[in-house]
Amino acid sequence: MQPLSVLADPTRRQIVELLAGGALCAGDIARRFAISAPAISQHLKMLRNARLIQVRRDAQKRIYELNPQGVEELREWVERLRGFWSARLDALESALTDPQQERLR
Q1: What is the pLDDT of residue 103?
Q2: Which of 12, 59, 67, 90 has the fewest CB atoms within 10 Å, i.e. the most exposed one?
Q3: Residue 38 — pLDDT band, cuts 50, 70, 90?
Q4: Where residue 9 sits, what CATH number does that domain have?
């Protein structure tokens, strides 16, 4: 899944977390990091390609924000995993608290 590999980088995760608080222009994003503006631009490009963020122009500025569709796809994937583990953890809890199982241990 491309979004997960893109989010493996801590700088890109921080950018996503920043944008979760609202849209920001590229300059505002870059000022929050101790790396060059071109490096931030590359991170933004990767996040756009993974469909996690989107960009719009406002005069001379580029405004970045989370892409609801891309984030929703990631959320759905995580929910499928959660469902997988929830059922197994519920079964484990039942097995551990079942008095019948106690005799088998």
Answers
A1: 55
A2: 59
A3: very high
A4: 1.10.10.10
- pLDDT of 105 reads 53
Q: Does residue 103 sit in helix, strand or coil? A: helix
| DSSP classification of residue 36 | -
User: How many domains are contained in the chain?
Assistant: 1
Report yes or no: 22 and 28 within 8 Å, Cβ to Cβ.
no
* Structure token digits, residue 31: 């000022």
Given a contact cutoff of 8 angstroms between Cβ atoms, the answer to whether 24 and 44 are in contact is: no
pLDDT of 86-101, one tens digit each? 777 777 777 778 767 6
Domain region containing 27: 2-104
From the CB of residue 54, how many other CB atoms can be counted at a distance below 10 Å? 17
Q: Do the Cβ atoms of 69 and 75 come closer than 8 Å?
A: no
> How far apart are the C-alpha atoms of 100 and 105, rounded to whole Å?
10
